[in-house]
Every structure is written in structure tokens, then in C-alpha cells.
Amino acid sequence: MNKPVLVCVVQEPLSSDLSRVTPLSSWLIFRRNSNKGDNRKTKGSRRTSKVRLTRTSILQHGLPGPPGPPGPQGPPGPPAPLLPQQQELIQELQLKLRDMAGGVCVLCDRPPRVSTSFLSRLLQAVTIPRRSLLELQPFSQPSDSERSLQRGQSFNSSTGRYTAAVSGFYQLTASLLIESGDRAQVRIRDSVKAAICIESLCQSNLSVESVMGVAAAGGTFSILLTGTLYLQAGEYVSVFVDNATGSAISVLQDSLFSGILLGV
User: Fold this and answer.
1) Which backbone phi and psi does 192 adopt, to 5 degrees?
2) Nearest Cα to 121, choosing from 259, 234, 258, 262?
3) pTM of the entire structure?
């Protein structure tokens, strides 16, 4: 049988500090100890609250939709200013052009003036016998509407020859309308060749040429010549037609011959 045990509890007297507890000191002690023990705040509490808010917003408003189409393109901005190096290059180029033109830059302020050009049409139909070569002439004087295209007096309408006033590159064009009759027998090599020749030397000098085959039924067809030739001052150019068929052909009236000086 267990014997009863007597336990004595001795109560210590309150310290002088506890006897002086006031409401203000109690608040300060609570504030100092509020972030200790079980009341300590964790770093993930703020992130957890954000996740909870996000889930709540998804449940309330639904998932976000796909991105919308891009907006219209804005207006283009102003051109960028030239760099100092670019401005220097432009100034140097203008000075070189002025030196080349004798102190006047024809390309800086206004387009260059055409110094020489011509345009003329065949005065009447010209018949070219079979297997023969013929220079086209004469040509008519320009009409009132075509006179504005003339620069200089270097084209001789009676001979159909244009004489270069200055050495340079010339753009030359001939548009010929040709008529041929019916032929009983046609060879494969039957053709008509037109050429713009220098000094009437179509074989030895450089020329602008075009060749057209001729059908057995005959009829009317056109030949167009256009190209660039370099002419020395005093050299002339003219149009030749080589009839390599078995019958005569005719170059019709108003066939055109023209030229213009491109540059020196």
C-alpha cells in the first residue's frame, strides 16, 4: 500500500519589476515578442497569398484569352540626317562635276540640255530590187509637231544622212514598214536585213542591225532598229536595207529615222 506524499510549494515573492507593470510596458513587451516562436512570419507567406489570390481570380473570371492581332503600322518617320562623311562626299562630287563642265555643274541645278537630235520620216516609198542593198533616201522635213524634237542642222533630208557635230555616244533608231509581194518559190535563207551604218561601211564598221524572215504569202511587216554607236565628229550614219529575197520589196512612206546625243 502506497504511502501518501506531502508536496510543499513555496511561492516566491513578486519581484519589484513585475510589481511595476503598466499598460505601456505590457504593449512594448508584446510588440518585441510578437515575431518569435509560433508567431514568426515565414518568407513564403507573401508568395502563398499571391498564389491564392491568382487561383481565386481564375475561378472568378476564367482563363486569359489568346493575344489579339497586331495593330496597324504607324506612319514612316522623317528621313535620317546625312552623316558628315556623306555631306563631304556630295560636296566633292559637285566640285568635280563643276570642274568637268568648265565651272558650271549642269547636273547640280537643272537637267542637262540636249545639244543635238533629229527625227525624220521617209518622203516616199522606196523599191529595193531582189538581191540588192540600198541606202534609204530622201526623207521629209519635220512637221510642226516634230520640229520641237530637232536640235541642230546636222541631218540632210535629201541624202538621209546624219553627220555628228561632236564626238560622243548617239542613240539611233529606225522603224521601217516593209511590203513584199507573193513569191512562187521561197528559200530558207530569204530574209530582209536593215542596218544603221557608219560612213556606209556596214561590214567593216560597227552598226545596228536587225534581220527579218519573209513568208511566201508576202504582206506587210515592220523592222525596228535601236542601239548606241560612238561617232567621231564629222562621221555620218544612214539606214541601209539588204533585200536577200527572190523578189522586190518596198519600204513604205513615213518609215522613221531618229537619233540623239547621249553624252561625250
Assistant:
1) -125, 125
2) 258
3) 0.57
